[in-house]
Amino acid sequence: MTSSNQHDEKKPFPWHLVFFLGPGLLIYVVFSVYPLLDTLVLSLYQEQDGHSSFVGLQNFITLITDDTWSHAFWNALANNFEFFAIHMLLQNPIGLILAVLLSSPKLRLSSTYRTLIFMPTMLSVVIIGFVWQLLLSPIWGIAENFLYDIGLGQYFDAWLGKESSALITLGFISVWQFVGIPMMLIYATLLNIPDDIIDASVVDGANSFQTFWHIKLPLILPTIAMVSILTFVANFNAFELIYAVKGALAGPNFSTDLMGTFFYRTFFGFQLQQGSASMGAAVATLMFLIILVGVMLFLFFIQRRIQRFQF
Amino acid sequence: MKLIHRLMPSNGLRQLPKSVSVHAVLLAYTIIALFPILVVVINSFKDRRAIFRDPLGLPTHDSFTLVGFQQVLLRSDFGLYSWNSLVVTILAVGLVLLLGAMAAWALTEYKFKGNLLITFLFAMGIMIPIRLGTVSILSLMVDLHLVNTLTALVLVYIAQGLPLAVYILSEFVRTIPKELTEAARCDSVSEYKIFFCIILPLLKPAMATVAVFTMIPIWNDLWFPLILAPGESTRTITLGVQQFVGQYVTDWNSVLSALTMAIVPVLILYTIFSRQLIRGLTSGAVK
């Protein structure tokens, strides 16, 4: 650190620091850090007739217990956990299987498969939502005809339009789009496992399933944990897919409402209910807390995993 | 399977059925991944009758039509939307790269009070989504008279992209040998020159990775265009398509064409840059 010593001796004002760090930090603080903190503060206020007054935790109490709010809030939260569970149960296992298959030794066309399977991930969630809305539409009948062709025609339904199946269907669509991310990240980790470890297990007589279960899986667990937290943050922040396919009302009968759409409606209002900045801020604050807890759990978990499996 | 393995210990024979089934699974999934996109693109070139009569068929000489595309171009300003998206994305990504590299350099190279705090502040931004601050961002933009301007979007996207950029580029700056900068300082080269003439060129590969990661969410975003710049003249392509499809939902030709016009440019760019993107994803840059 000779550089800092030099500066300490002369003690000129570190203009170069201001030059390098200033612009980026300024934009980041003004348009990200400050709005976030301001939102947390705003959630403690209530606006009335043009001026706002401090009300403490009243907005949160209203959200969680008041009859007109709590039902929508708990519904969105429960739906969001269901949405996340669909991703965890499908996206990561499918991504894992694809990654393991892609990393089979001497697999031809491996990079072609990788590129093509990752393709939907690149497109806008909005576009993907519309594409699936068309495919699943009973008017067009592509999905219906396909099911008839494979003999399952009687199971077809307007899944996106039914309260019981709309959220699950949207979950499937989202999984379909983003399965490329776990696939890619797990694939990268699998490639980085040193050959000697695999060779050693083969010499010890392990078959390929045992090698996977006892050697590879523990080594890719940190990656799976990371993918899980990325999914968690993305899911509890999701808005576009629901908004594109079902609109801000997240129909039918709010059965596809997530925290993101609930936040949007609370802030901007809908139908007869007027939008409220402070209630919107309260919803955003709760989303912030949920995401923060998730990230903390992840850091705790991955920290231990990395220590255990470092090589 | 075990029996077969024992009966045929020869490696070549044992590998064959396994690799066939691996290909079968991967091929099946590739079809699942591409089929919905292909159906939309193919049908956008067919007339209404053919769309419904034979949705899976390719456009024939009789059914081929560009009427959907004509309708889209007639009823909405797709050129403008694409231009807006392009301007916002290029400005935001360019500034994220430049400001991100400068900040990453300052935070890794110089020791100063508050360094740790600022590094932590940026690190938080990787995990905490900027949308949670939307309520305040909107009122800030109202105060700054930036609502319905592309500037608002560019500023927000820079703030959104910087944390990951600073993180990835800092990792990269650390791998640059200290001797390089020390030697330059002995020759009393200024700090600015060291950064712009020595460090910045070395950061190019990492900046390509950052560019891809920053670009995709910006191009595809609906949230901020919808809230900060919903006006006709500042609409981005994602918002434009969303509004168009919502409005003409019963006109299948137009809807399919609008979606195709949003999909195809992205897929062309993806095909060109996929090598770069996948290398970035798999190089562990985002561990």
CATH superfamily of the largest domain in chain A: MetI-like
Q: Write down the Rg of chain A.
A: 25 Å
The topology string of helices and strands of chain B comes to: HHHHHHHHHHHHHH
Low-confidence stretches of chain B: 1-13
User: Which outline of chain B best applies?
Assistant: globular
Mean pLDDT over all positions of chain A: 87
Strand order, sheet with most strands of chain A: 1-2
What is the helical fraction of chain A, as a range of percent? over 70%
Strand count, sense and barrel status of the largest sheet of chain B are: none
Give the end-to-end Cα distance of chain A, rounded to a whole number of Å.
Answer: 30 Å
Which helices and strands, and how do they pair?
The complex is a heterodimer of chains A (311) and B (287).
Chain A: H1 2-10, H2 15-42, E1 45-48, E2 51-54, H3 58-65, H4 67-102, H5 110-122, H6 125-135, H7 142-149, H8 166-178, H9 180-192, H10 195-203, H11 208-235, H12 240-246, H13 259-268, E3 269-270, E4 273-274, H14 277-309
Antiparallel strand pairs in A: 1-2, 3-4
Helix pairs in contact in A: 2-14, 3-4, 4-8, 4-9, 4-11, 5-9, 6-8, 6-12, 9-11, 10-11, 11-14, 13-14
Chain B: H1 2-7, H2 11-43, H3 48-53, H4 67-75, H5 78-109, H6 115-127, H7 134-143, H8 150-174, H9 178-186, H10 191-202, H11 204-220, H12 223-228, H13 237-247, H14 252-282
Helix pairs in contact in B: 2-14, 4-14, 5-8, 5-11, 5-13, 6-8, 8-11, 11-14, 13-14
Give an account of the 3D structure:
The complex is a heterodimer of chains A (311) and B (287). Chain A folds into 2 domains: 15-54, no CATH class; 69-309, MetI-like (MetI-like fold), CATH 1.10.3720. Helices cover 73% and strands 4% of the residues of chain A. Chain A has helices at residues 2-10, 15-42, 58-65, 67-102, 110-122, 125-135, 142-149, 166-178, 180-192, 195-203, 208-235, 240-246, 259-268, 277-309; strands at residues 45-48, 51-54, 269-270, 273-274. A two-stranded antiparallel ribbon of chain A has the order 1-2. Chain A starts with a helix and ends with a helix. Residues 1-7 of chain A have low confidence and may be disordered. In chain B, α4 crosses α14 (252-282), α5 packs parallel to α8 and α5 packs antiparallel against α13. Helix content of chain B is 77%, strand content 0%. Chains A and B meet through α1, α2, α4, α5 and α6 of A and α2, α5, α6, α7 and α8 of B.
